[in-house]
Specification:
This protein is an alpha+beta fold and 185 residues long. It is built from two helices and twelve strands, in the order ααββββββββββββ. The protein has a six-stranded mixed sheet, with no helix packed on it. Strands 7-8-9 form a three-stranded antiparallel sheet, with no helix packed on it. Helix 1 crosses helix 2.
Length: 185
């Protein structure tokens, strides 16, 4: 099979050379056959097809850096088919590879952000849904937001706790406190 392909390519190359000699110019096939090919050594990582990864950031020259699923080190991209911005850092990307080499990724596109599940080690999954006007973060038992001494705790039974050193509430219109009973101090 390989010898048939080689023979056909040789025949096409000789036809192209004959055509180029007749016209005084190189044909498109001739130019492709004579184009230099990147050196590939045996220890180059190969990557076939389309792979997934995540955008890690940009280098000093503005080239995208991606972490390819299944590879240890982030790689610098040789190009992108989509416009990338700093707010895209962390997003999942679809990758193709120049000459099939893992160290030459090309970003083909950004994966759509509809819903994602974030798995935190030793914890229940947290579902995050992004919509144009709002983002929904959902947990099974409790959802706790914490920053220093400030805590907002949402529990599945409907309880909400606000804890902090100082809590301030502002309203530009009316502010209502409603409940079955209201206790102050």
């Amino acid at each position: 099979m390989e010898t048939e392909v080689t023979a056909k390519l040789s025949g096409l190359a000789s036809q192209a050379e004959n055509g180029a000699q007749d016209s005084g110019q190189g044909s498109a096939l001739d130019m492709l056959l004579r184009r230099p090919v990147a050196n590939v050594s045996d220890n180059d990582s190969r990557a076939g097809g389309i792979r997934l990864g995540s955008l890690q950031g940009f280098d000093g020259q503005g080239r995208a850096r991606v972490q390819i699923d299944g590879l240890a080190r982030p790689q610098t991209c040789v190009g992108a088919l989509v416009r990338l911005q700093t707010q895209d850092i962390g997003r999942r990307v679809a990758l193709g590879f120049e000459n099939g080499l893992a160290h030459c990724p090309i970003i083909l596109g950004l994966l759509a952000e509809t819903a994602a599940t974030v798995q935190i080690t030793g914890a229940q999954p947290v579902n995050i849904e992004r919509h144009p006007e709002r983002t929904v973060i959902e947990a099974d038992g409790e959802l706790e937001l914490r920053c220093g001494e400030a805590v907002i705790l949402l529990q599945a039974d409907g309880s909400i706790q606000l804890r902090g050193i100082h809590i301030t509430s502002h309203a530009s219109a009316s502010q209502r406190i409603r409940g079955g009973s209201v206790q102050i101090n």
